[in-house]
Amino acid sequence: MHQPQDSAERPGSPRTPEAGPPRTFDQCLEDYLVYLKVGHVKAPSTVAEYTRDLHLFRSFLLRHLGLRTEGEQAPLYLHHLTRQTVRAFLLYLQDERRNNRFTMARKISSLRSFFRFLVREGWLAENPMEGIDRPRVNPRQVLRRYLSFQDAQRLLAGTAETEEPQTWRNLALLTVFIYGGLRVSELTALRLADVRWDEGALEVLHGKGNKQRLVPLPPPALEILSEYLRRRPATSSPFLFVNRQGKQMNRSSVYFIVKQLVRRFGLDEQISPHRLRHTCATLLLEAGVDLRYIQEFLGHADISTTQIYTHVSRSRLWQAILEHAPFPELKRPR
Predict the structure, then answer these.
(1) 228 is an active site residue
(2) Taking 50 as the threshold, does the pLDDT of residue 307 lie above it?
(3) Which segment, 8-17, 87-96, 182-191, is predicted with the most confidence on average?
(4) Known catalytic residue: 68?
């Protein structure tokens, strides 16, 4: 495997395109993803998103260029990566997949990063993303959809009343999202040892550089977690949330469970795990919790991404969140 340069994500002059056999898309993609993971260039959740986006791009190119036929597939080379094929892909995302501008912006970022890597490694002479702009995104609009206090209560109470083998797990999962504001990648990475029972909190690993934060949970939420663990399938898995086979849950299964429960109780079908995180933030804000406390609770580096981070002591943070009691009452399943 080719060893990528350390400068792949930093400004600099591109190398002269290498001589020799043409490199395939798959070879370059493998090297790019190794670089992101080994070099810790991006947060794990970002690497996962980029991976999905670029595999989708690859599948589109194979169909669009007629390289995939029944039972056979011709190699996809870098010379296939032109401005025309990129624009065709973006039109496909917009017209056929109906991606909104937020999703489009992220996928364009994925392509930009990948193509910058190819140019700087000397595998591509020109960047086909030149002149292609990201859609303008208003960060305030991203937060528009969330559950109201009443709807959050309805989701939690309805889940508690379902009579299914996974009722306790699903309720615990929703509780951690709504009471703890975790990202889906943070939730699936939680281990049994991350529940700090003596401190009433979760130790959460998040973001680039594997930073840690403690997320306080009120006693009713901890009781739900405790009961879920008592009923959890017998497994040697160290992860907190497991599937029916006793293995670590992945992002897709968590997403499916949340969407399924949201639909079951007639709530906004746009609600996703990430929007449950928005729900947590909004409930805290509406209850009067200071924005600086919410910032630290959710693990944000700063409030506006440009302002200087204001540190809040852990004791004041926990006192503010636990005393305001912004969340719906939890009911125990039967």
Answers:
(1) no
(2) no
(3) 182-191
(4) no
Q: Which residues contact 7 (CB under 8 A, 6 or more apart)?
A: 120
For β-strands 211-216 and 201-206, DSSP reports them as: antiparallel
Q: Is 55 a catalytic residue?
A: no
Beta strands in 135-275 (DSSP E): 195-196, 201-206, 211-216
Which of 37, 87, 309, 332 is flagged as catalytic? 309
192 and 296, same domain (yes or no): yes
> Considering 101, 274, 292, 331, which one is annotated as catalytic?
274
pLDDT 10s digits, 102-119: 788 889 999 999 999 999
Whether 278 is a known active-site residue: answer no
Query: How distant is the alpha carbon of residue 314 from its chain centre?
Result: 26
pLDDT of residue 324: 63
Q: Is 191 one of the catalytic residues? A: no
Catalytic residue among 23, 116, 120, 183: 183
Residue type, 293: Y
pLDDT at 7 over 50: no
Q: Which of 23, 42, 277, 278 is catalytic?
A: 277
Q: What are the pLDDT digits (tens) for 24-72?
A: 999 999 999 999 888 766 777 788 889 999 999 999 998 888 887 766 7
Out of 208, 259, 292, 324, the active site residue is 208
At residue 100, φ and ψ (nearest 5 deg) are -80, 175
Return the pLDDT at 196. Answer: 94
Q: Which of 114, 137, 160 is the last residue of a domain?
A: 137
Compute the distance between CA of residue 273 and CA of residue 146 in angstroms, rounded to an integer. 10
- 211 located within any domain: yes
pLDDT of residue 230: 93
Catalytic residue, candidates 64, 191, 300, 314: 300
- 2 tagged catalytic: no
Q: Please give the Cα distance from 9 to 11 (Å, whole number).
A: 7
Domain span at residue 77? 6-137
Whether 81 and 219 map to the same domain: the answer is no
